Amino acid sequence: xxxxxxxxxxxxxxxxxxxxxxxxxxxxxxxxxxxxxxxxxxxxxxxxxxxxxxxxxxxxxxxxxxxxxxxxxxxxxxxxxxxxxxxxxxxxxxxxxxxxxxxxxxxxxxxxxxxxxxxxxxxxxxxxxxxxxxxxxxxxxxxxxxxxxxxxxxxxxxxxxxxxxxxxxxxxxxxxxxxxxxxxxxxxxxxxxxxxxxxxxxxxxxxxxxxxxxxxxxxxxxxxxxxxxxxxxxxxxxxxxxxxxxxxxxxxxxxxxxxxxxxxxxxxxxxxxxxxxxxxxxxxxxxxxxxxxxxxxxxxxxxxxxxxxxxxxxxxxxxxxxxxxxxxxxxxxxxxxxxxxxxxxxxxxxxxxxxxxxxxxxxxxxxxxxxxxxxxxxxxxxxxxxxxxxxxxxxxxxxxxxxxxxxxxxxxxxxxxxxxxxxxxxxxxxxxxxxxxxxxxxxxxxxxxxxxxxxxxxxxxxxxxxxxxxxxxxxxxxxxxxxxxxxxxxxxxxxxxxxxxxxxxxxxxxxx
Length: 512
Description:
- By secondary structure, this protein is an alpha+beta fold.
- The mean pLDDT is 85.
- The protein is 49% helix and 10% strand.
- It has 2 domains: 83-133 and 171-278 and 293-452, no CATH class; 460-511, no CATH class.
- β1 and β2 form a beta hairpin.
- The chain has helices at residues 22-25, 34-42, 50-58, 65-68, 72-80, 103-111, 132-142, 146-153, 172-175, 194-205, 218-222, 297-305, 310-317, 326-355, 364-395, 401-406, 421-484, 494-511; strands at 84-89, 95-100, 122-128, 180-191, 233-245, 254-260, 268-269.
- The protein is built from 18 helices and 7 strands.
- α12 packs across α14, α14 (326-355) runs antiparallel to α15 and α15 (364-395) runs antiparallel to α17.
């Protein structure tokens, strides 16, 4: 909806007025939805939750209402959408899993708790996309804070002053007490043609959560570079992963919900995707090698979540807050590493283009170079902020060494969720170095442009000097010819011609 084609998104009303279209999308059937009713009731005192209620009624981002208002079948399909996998680790470590395509089957599965077998069981619910019925079912079943869903449905780097969909930040002291977190990150995807890219954009528009494949159109600026295939492009799509862990005592089951984004069906993961997290099998191992399906983020999350070891399950049962999120966070880190590798590749190519011997032959080269550099200069600080926010939300006080040293009860940094802290620190450092590199590179380009302009100014001054000498040479001769042309017999008077040279040459010498 937030595009030139989408038009004015404020037709639904801005942040300072009631929603203008609320009476149009209000649900008028007789079905009882206690979680939606609960959100609408408390939104009178917590107005930031009103947007989630509108989202559930519209079944997607409310600014899309004018596009789907008359498509009742599409709205019903969006509302009923369900792609959820329930993983149950029993107390003895045995695993059972089932993927549900309807909320009826999902609701029945959630009513049966896994058996304990002497240890607290672990239930992991992995959800692709979101829908009204899924939010209603999970929210009512586990009494989930609506902010968990609200913080997952949007996709904005910044907000305007009139946005009713604004996501205001929490105080750190408040955020650390919440049983959930949201991580924003980037996913790189390669498209061989603009037709593939257009189809991918269409598919993202069909998701219920708002995600934009290429919100600032930077892929067009970065495409058709050196050694690139014509019309091919790479997009860095902003994605979100959200994890909620039910507060519990040490004997109660571990129940967690992981929300992941859908994956477009066209295009390819950049460079074929990430490396597996498991060791490479030995050549003497005769069992069939296996790996993640790599068909979508959802299926990869299910695969790695089903590979958790008994030690990781025991750490989870020991009430380490977000240990259950280790599999999806590994995928997030892998996507960040791919993005950083792609950024380094693009910056190296820009430097190579700049340093080519024939770079300055075309005046348009510098404009194209600066256009390619502009998206990185604008977005990299925001990307760095994503990583910093993730570290604060996931690790909290444990992210600071002085706090870990002061608290003897903090788990070992080699165990559980803290084992990923060093990887997050690494990508944070690499992103900061990329930002410094971009700033330095821009200064070099600017200085080079100034030097080249000075060089061209000197050349122009030299050319003007030559023109001045030529003008000085011909001015005395021109004055002499004008003076002698007064004579009507000049053309026939040889004496006059001799006089022209006798007068003109000395005058030229004197003028020089």
